Amino acid sequence: MKVISVVLIVVSLIASLYYLVVGLTKPEAVIVYNKANIPYWGVQTWAFVLGTSGILLLFPQTFKLAAVLMILNSLFTIGCFVAIKDFKGGFIEFLFLQIPIFLLWTGYPISVLEKVRNLVS
């Protein structure tokens, strides 16, 4: 469980940082938000929040906040897909929504190890 959590944290971090760079440098490239009539400054702000949440995943003190921000990002993106009637894209984003939900459920990887130790002892 710990290894799975660490892998998902790394994947989430890479994806968040990628969308941070793309959202800040080329907000017109994030097509779903543009089609949903989100202004450029809104896309840039949202990209900054997503990138920040990816970085916050690395710290145990801010792990839950980061997971909640990522869940909110996925829900917002699903809403944008529904607004433009792209249900396939919304379904794919729904699948990606399961990653931060799983991370929030399992907790920070170190706490997973502590939970296992408590069960054994």
| N- to C-terminal distance | 18 Å
Q: Beta-strand level of the residues, as a percent range? A: under 5%
Whole-number average pLDDT?
A: 87
Total number of helical segments?
Answer: 6
Structural class estimated from helices and strands: mainly alpha
Radius of gyration: 16 Å
Order of helices and strands: HHHHHH
Profile the largest sheet.
none
What does the overall shape look like? Answer: elongated
**Domain unit count:** 1
Share in helix? over 70%
> How many strand elements?
0
Q: Unreliable runs, pLDDT <50, ≥5 residues?
A: none
What does this structure look like?
The structure is a single chain. The protein is mainly α and 121 residues long. It has one domain. It is 82% helix and 0% strand. It has six helices and no strands. It has helices spanning 2-25, 31-35, 40-56, 63-83, 87-106, 109-120. Helix 1 runs antiparallel to helix 3 (40-56), helix 3 runs antiparallel to helix 4 and helix 4 packs antiparallel against helix 5 (87-106).
